[in-house]
Design a protein that fits this description.
The protein starts with a helix and ends in a 10-residue tail after the last strand. Helix 2 runs antiparallel to helix 3 and helix 2 runs antiparallel to helix 5. It is elongated and about 170 Å long. A hairpin with a 5-residue loop joins strand 13 and strand 14. The chain has four domains: 81 residues, Beta Barrel (conserved putative lor/sdh protein from methanococcus maripaludis s2 fold); 87 residues, Elongation Factor Tu (Ef-tu), domain 3 (Beta Barrel), CATH 2.40.30; 57 residues, RNA polymerase II/Efflux pump adaptor protein, barrel-sandwich hybrid domain (OB fold (Dihydrolipoamide Acetyltransferase, E2P)), CATH 2.40.50; 83 residues, no CATH class. By secondary structure, it is an alpha+beta fold. Pfam families: Beta-barrel_RND_2 (PF25954), BSH_RND (PF25917). One of its GO terms (molecular function) is efflux transmembrane transporter activity. This is Multidrug efflux pump subunit AcrA (Membrane-fusion protein).
Length: 378
């Protein structure tokens, strides 16, 4: 019985092997399916060389063109006035910013002026007798001498003899001593050199002010300047008076300025040149961050494309007979998103948008994008 079962199993194995081999042979003879070739659709543009205006983009913060840092040259108590010495306070030209108590120094000035007056009065009898020809001008000077006003200039000496006489009596030294004290007295009142606004206040009314102490900052809010650093290659292209368009970072506001100054030296560390842009607008504030677009020059026979279309080896993709190819180009100027190129013949078809995984010889389907047409939405 066992032998019969083994024989049946053997026959079944032989039949199964035969059928399996026959199936393998049949599958081997079937043709392999051909994979469909994928053709990518690309956006293209036709090259038309023209004059491209190179616009240099730079940014910086605004600083008031006219600003004054206020320092004390004398010591005393800060006297209160009609306006509080606080940031944001406006002052007109010639209006007192800070008044320091000068009563002690004022007394010294009056004492010196009185001594000068007495010294001149003491020589008048001698002038009448020995210098009758100059007596009248000194008498007129003495009559016009007012202790409550600024000391007037001494009469002009008309002879060497008169000069020796006046100098010998100490009149000249007394006069200049008084003028020195009067000059120092003027430093107790700090006035606005122009109409503007206080941006920093470091002292308050009633506080003791010391000589050399910083008191605050005062600016003219009508005119601002922005300092920008540009590549040294544009040193010869920047022109004073050139119009500049400025925008805020959100691109919601635009302002018009001009190049007011260009530094005559190049920074040795960064190899950049500094230009200053002047701008006027009531909306501007000191410290605002703006972006400037400076018209540097105009490049002839060039085109402008996206930077991501330029390959690392200074080549760009072109399309010939539905195949991608590369062509050598000459980059002229790079901005954040654009590049200006030369040496591309007119009529050349180039990519308008970058294609991931693109390579020379790649089969593509071109769709032209006409960038010169302006479509209006009705």
């Amino acid at each position: 019985m066992r032998k019969i079962l083994l024989a049946i199993i053997g026959v079944l194995l032989i039949v199964a092997s035969y059928l399996g081999a026959k199936q393998l042979i049949a599958n081997k003879n079937k043709p392999k399916p051909v994979e469909a070739k994928v053709v990518k659709t690309v956006y293209t543009d036709t090259v038309f060389n023209s004059n491209i205006k190179i616009v240099i983009q730079a940014n910086g913060s605004l600083v008031a063109k006219r600003r004054v840092e206020l320092y004390a040259e004398v010591q005393g108590i800060f006297k209160p006035s009609n306006k509080l010495f606080k940031p944001g306070q406006k002052y007109s030209k010639g209006e007192a910013l800070i008044r320091i108590d000068a009563s002690e120094h004022y007394a010294s000035v009056q004492s010196s002026k009185s001594n000068l007056y007495n010294a001149i009065a003491a020589i008048m009898p001698d002038l009448r007798l020995d210098f009758s020809e100059v007596f009248q001008k000194w008498q007129t000077y003495l009559n016009g001498f007012d202790l409550s006003k600024t000391t007037p200039k001494l009469p002009e000496m008309t002879s060497e003899k008169e000069n020796y006489f006046i100098t010998g009596r100490g009149i000249i030294s007394s006069y200049y001593n008084v003028k020195n004290l009067e000059q120092r007295l003027s430093k107790y009142n700090i006035v606005a050199p122009f109409s503007g606004i206080l941006t920093e206040a470091l002292v308050t009314e009633g506080s003791l002010i010391r000589s050399g102490q910083k008191l605050g900052e005062f600016i003219d809010p009508s005119v601002y300047e922005m300092e920008v650093a540009l590549s040294k290659s544009y040193a010869t292209l920047l022109k004073v008076g050139e119009a500049v368009t400025l925008t805020n970072l959100d691109k919601t506001e635009a302002y018009t300025g001009k190049v007011s100054r260009v530094n005559g030296s190049i920074d040795a560390t960064t190899q950049t040149i500094t230009a200053y842009i002047e701008v006027k607008d009531t909306k501007l504030k000191e410290g605002m961050y703006l972006e400037a677009n400076l018209n540097a020059k105009e490049e002839q026979d060039a085109i402008e494309i996206d930077r991501n279309l330029l390959l690392d080896n200074e080549q760009v993709f072109i399309i010939k007979d539905s195949l991608l190819d590369v062509i050598n180009v000459k980059p002229i100027y790079f901005s954040d998103t654009k590049v200006v190129l030369k040496n591309i013949p007119n009529g050349t078809i180039i990519l308008k948008k970058a294609v991931p995984g693109a390579y020379a010889g790649m089969h593509v389907k071109a769709v032209e994008v006409n960038t010169t047409t302006n479509d209006s939405v009705q």
